């Protein structure tokens, strides 16, 4: 048993497991294809932006601060808008590039509306965070349902032969031996 634990591939080399070295569980070899985006990162970014705005930071400073931790498309849009707002551009111009990207279109729409009407952008960011969390929950539920459907095929292929061999064939053989052996035919 102990030998099998050393031979089977693991996340750490077998020598490191023998020596008890603690290292990173998953090593990044520069391949980002297996790296998954956090589905709640966008919601957290909107919440952080709302908190910055509620604390009294100007929109440009809050957007610049939040852009450091935001996911990729949102980070770029926030940084660009913050730079333009810092230079004195109006909200329509500053959020124009964000409006063209489908991932940040709702943020740009809310920011433009807030600048035009004078309403609080923090409340809008809280609404966007709630909507983003709802979409992430719906996506997770859909993935779980899809996994349940996809697993039924292999399970059926595994259990159907066993059911036939252990359930149906003995009944048919038993009935056939009674019918043929009992002289009913």
TrEMBL record:
GO cellular component terms given for this protein: plasma membrane
UniProt subcellular location: Cell membrane
InterPro entries: T2SS_GspF_dom
Keywords of the record: Cell membrane, Membrane, Transmembrane, Transmembrane helix
Domain (Type II secretion system protein GspF): residue spans on this chain: 47-165
Pfam families membership: T2SSF
Residue stretches spanning the membrane: 155-176
Membrane topology: Multi-pass membrane protein
Protein name: Type II secretion system protein GspF domain-containing protein
Native organism taxonomy: Bacteria, Bacillati, Actinomycetota, Actinomycetes, Mycobacteriales
